[in-house]
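New to this. Help decode the following:
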Amino acid sequence: AYELLMFPWARTAGLSGMNTSFISGAESMRLNAAGLAHVKTTQAILGHTRYFDGTGINMNGLALGQRISENGVFGVSIVALDFGDIPITTTAQPEGSGASFSPSWFNIGISYGHSFENKVSVGFLVRGIFESTAEVAASGFAFDAGVQYFSGDLDEFKFGISLRNVGSRMKFGGSALDQQLQEQTNSNPIRPVTFSVRTADFEIPSVLNIGISYDFLIGSDQRLTVLGNFTANSFSRDQIGGGVEYAFDEKFMLRAGYKHEYDTEAAEDLAGREIEGSIYTGLSIGASFEVPLNKDKPNNTFGIDYAYRETALFNGTHNLGIRIGL
């Protein structure tokens, strides 16, 4: 279930998922559900990701946030992977049989964010996880929880914690795991018997994020945010990193981040090139452009987001997103 660690939203990807402390809006459901509480009225986000450009893997996401009370916001998110059509090969037809299959990897999350008057917001999310390929499937569920705290006269200082992907174990099953063998006993002739292969179950990748940030306000229309973040992964090495985000009038934003992975070990790819630790080099950049659609309704906006994460192999990961506020 590695897809639970992938970022479908460009603003989050532009900082390598290190904006735990100040992430806001519908995209918060992927990193820190507490940020959902900052949706003003209604927000919708569409995201498209070219994952490891050159592999043919794409990721698409849709997230909706709706304020339902003075302090509460309800959200729904759907994220799916697209592997394209994969040719079916067999030992008898190693070049392909002419048929193909397409795995289906997607998850659905339902979330609620609540803000308090003392500048604290909390969020909770439950997510259904579904993975299937040719006649084999697995499913499970996970819980996320997060907290954000803002401080200062203009909420310059921000602190956030999120715990993600705590849930059930998953296990693959299906008719493709059945095998038909010949059985013979002393009293019975040979007969075909179908056996079902047992598969091992597995845990989903839980992760803990702790982040801080500080806004340096330049005049009345510029902001420079400096951030730091620590990520504890259950099945991979822990990470620490930092980044900056510059905003002009909250309409144009540039961001960049660098994430370091602890105790990395060098490895070689199939071409003999040396790779240090994760396939990601640690560098990420992004930009956003957001404009009001109605001057009488400040929450009615349209925005475009882009992010790029550099990789040691392939041509990096590209994120493109569209956000609409109503």
Summary: The chain has a mean pLDDT of 90. The helical segments are 10-13. Residues 10-13 form the longest helix (4 residues). The two ends are 34 Å apart (CA to CA).
